[in-house]
Specification:
The protein has four helices and seven strands; from the N terminus they run E-E-E-E-H-H-H-E-H-E-E. About 40% of the residues are buried. The longest helix has 14 residues. The radius of gyration is 16 Å and the shape is globular. The protein has one domain: 60s Ribosomal Protein L30, Chain: A (2-Layer Sandwich), CATH 3.30.1330. By secondary structure, it is an alpha+beta fold. Strands 4-1-7-5-6 form a five-stranded mixed beta sheet. The protein has a two-stranded antiparallel sheet with strand order 2-3. Helices cover about 25% and strands about 30% of the residues.
Length: about 170
Amino acid sequence: MTNFQDGPRCGIGYDSHRLVEGRPLIIGGVDIPSPFGLLGHSDGDVLSHAIADALLGAAGQGDIGKYFPDTDPRWQGAKSLLFLRTIAQLLADSGFSIINIDSVVVIDEPKLAPYIPKFRQKIAETLSLDISQISVKAKRTEGAFAVPMAASHVIALVEKQPITAAI
């Protein structure tokens, strides 16, 4: 009989934050020069937050708020790569391996294309993956956002390793 808990599983993640003056702009763990940054309880890293939700969703483990609630002062100003590192370990401890992550970051300014290699490298290092397992694309709305903001959409594919019973 097939155990549908084993094998590949897909998860989707989304996050968005307003852009405000006086905050650093951190995306994918990379500090990007900008007069505006993302408003959030932690560093507001929309890419890392969406990856976290996609990974947790694929593993059936809830979402980022379950593990790092914005009501907990411990996470005030926290670096979101810490969240990703912790979630990667949680998945590994639960028997999951990450196959790949595909993501889109939507922001009008600044243009992110020059930073994509850094995003991929930083995320791959944080999750102990090969850079070929990470895809990041940057898109602009051409002014369609009514409020200056950034958003990220992510799909993650993980695989649950089958548990073999000892006889």
